[in-house]
Amino acid sequence: MASDxxxxxxxxxxxxxxxxxxxxxxxxxxxxxxxxxxxxxLDRINFxxxxxxxxxxxxPNGAGKTTTMKILTSFMSATEGTARVAGxxxxxxxxxxxxxxxxxxxxxxxxxxxxTHDYLEFVASIRGVPAGECQEHIERVVELTGLEDVIxxxxxxxxxxxxxxxGLAQAIIHQPDxxxxxxxxxxxxxxxxxxxxxxxxxxxxDRTIILSTHILQEVSAVCDRVIIVNEGEIVADDQLEALxxxxxxxxxxxxxxxxxxxxxxxxxxxxxxxxxxxxxIEEAGRRQAHVFRLDTDDETSVRRxxxxxxxxxxxxxxxxxxAEPSLEDIFRVYTEGSTEEAREAS
Amino acid sequence: MLSNIGYVLKKELGSYFNSAVAxxxxxxxxxxxxxxxxxxxFQQINALSLRxxxxxxxxxxxxxxxxxxxxxxxxxKRMGTLELLMTMPLRDVEIVMGKFLAAVxxxxxxxxxxxxxxxxxxxxxxxxxxxxxxxYLGLLLLGGTYSAIGLMASSWTRDQVVSxxxxxxxxxxxxLIDQLVGEPTGAMARIxxxxxxxxxxxxxxxxxxxxxxxxxxxxxxxxxxxxxxVSVASRRW
Lengths: 346, 237
Hints:
The structure holds 2 protein chains of 2 kinds.
Chain A: E1 27-36, E2 39-49, E3 54-58, H1 65-72, E4 80-85, E5 88-89, H2 94-100, E6 101-104, H3 116-126, H4 134-145, H5 160-172, E7 178-182, H6 190-203, E8 208-213, H7 216-222, E9 225-230, E10 233-239, H8 240-250, E11 254-259, H9 264-273, E12 277-282, E13 289-296, H10 299-313, E14 317-322, H11 327-335, H12 340-345
Parallel strand pairs in A: 3-8, 3-9, 6-7, 7-8
Antiparallel strand pairs in A: 1-2, 1-4, 4-5, 9-10, 11-13, 11-14, 12-13
Helix pairs in contact in A: 3-4, 4-5, 5-6
Chain B: H1 2-18, H2 21-43, H3 51-79, H4 81-86, H5 92-113, H6 116-124, H7 129-155, H8 160-180, H9 186-195, H10 197-206, H11 211-233
């Protein structure tokens, strides 16, 4: 509405550098710090998001994801640093920022005593949709988020999945340039998660979306880019593939899977004695299977030795594969197993 | 600005009238003041005025205004919806004013429902409509003041019980102070007289519209709303 020249979408390649000064980025966060008393919730974070990108904001609980989002929606002000959203400074012109953004806070707060339709109408009018076009906008988001069946029901009566859709619908009703979603799939069942992800991918075709999550699969399902935050700092900011490669490079080797056994130590010593194998790391076991990661430079000969030994001793070898890093590995490597509890204890 | 206040006002009125709150407040207020009005009416059949109604209504307002304002911010804080509201393109002052006007509107509805009292009296003889109008103006100003105090208390907490207790205490203190301080003299008397909501109301109830009384109510209202706004805005720090 108010911004014509400031937020023209750029079609150039997506840069991941934080030093965008062109003013074309949808979101620019520059050295933002937020402290609560002695606690540094965010420590000089920098990143930028280009128009049309879907960025996943990943990190353990308490890492600073929500704080960042609250600053971006100008709900909270940063202690230091600046942030620009859709071309406006969050501190100097908060109302323009809020007009250009849609926000779904964590836990999806909704006015429970309102009818879904009335609620969407209320949000649309406050978000600046002209009275004549409200109905049109409501119909569009209702179709997009699949709310047809509950449009005349009280929000109080809605299931968790529908509430989440109402929350999404209110965030996109005014067709904002930037959509900020704080854990949009928390508490949903797997089917609902898939549905919500489809909705997010659907609206994300022509909009900038930044969504926080600690569900790793979500990132690979919807995001173009991943920003990993830990203890108030950005520890990684790249395409998912690039992160995978980086982790694979830092943890090379083979992944070997065995069937259930009473004596995993025997397997471990057997693996350790193979020629060309460095460390043997047992990974978080699945039920009825033991997975080891073998640190090695010579994959081929280790594979060969493994199969030969299996043929002779029948250890119950189920599979050998390159140790492709899973999202869990990426997360673990970058956050170094940090948890909220561990940090509080220290 | 005005349209934004209007959206908030409309939403709050909607939730008053969609829930039982509005109806309970209207019915209880009418029952209590009505019963007292008619009891007094038969006691003092010769006095053709609304003085008894106007002298009792402030006491009940001191309770009903906090009751209708207690959830306005406390509930939004507890549900987390305040964050949603505060990330919409609204200024904090628009949120506060919308909610304040919603409470005042509900009280206005309540006052309109009491109009049958003066109308009944006017059938019986020559009622001083000027004094009635002045008394209703006083009720509205007092209702606004108590609502602003209620809103302020609501912005301090996420617990509605705390909200109503704090607001009720402040309103009741302001209402009763001129009766609780025994025979004040000198400066003390003037202070007590000035901060008591009741002494200002008495003039209006008698039909005397003194600009100082009006100013008193408007200034207390403004201060309470300002504190409310600061309290809401402080969530952003």
